[in-house]
Amino acid sequence: MTPEQKEGLDDFGKMLVAEVYDRACEVLHGTISHGMKGIKPDPFHLAYQSLDEKSKEVLRRFVMEAVDQTFAQFLNFLDVHKISISVKTSSGEVVDVQAVSDGLAAEPYNDWGWIAKYSRFKYGIDTRE
Fold this sequence. Notes:
Blueprint (H helix, E strand, L loop, with lengths): L2 H31 L9 H7 L3 H28 L5 E3 L5 E3 H4 L13 H5 L11
Antiparallel strand pairs: 1-2
Helix pairs in contact: 1-3
């Protein structure tokens, strides 16, 4: 992989994590922390608040697993169907990140993956603030 291809793949991962993964986590974090805006009282927030601490922790882990699985399945869909994803690098080169990746679905998930590098929720949804 060339440096330009690596840059394109990293840029795509950074955008995808910020605009899809983290936004999904933000909505869920907001719902369990203070409820959805405009819905008062929010039944999901009230239900979460009624749980004991152990149940809250299990639910937060379950929610993160659901987000992770949806994210990975979406990336796998792009791979399986060979959907081109063009990203322009800082040098102006256009990189097809789907073609240069060994597997988009695996890119987020390791110690050096997109989530570890770019996500504000790399440790899950924490409501202790």
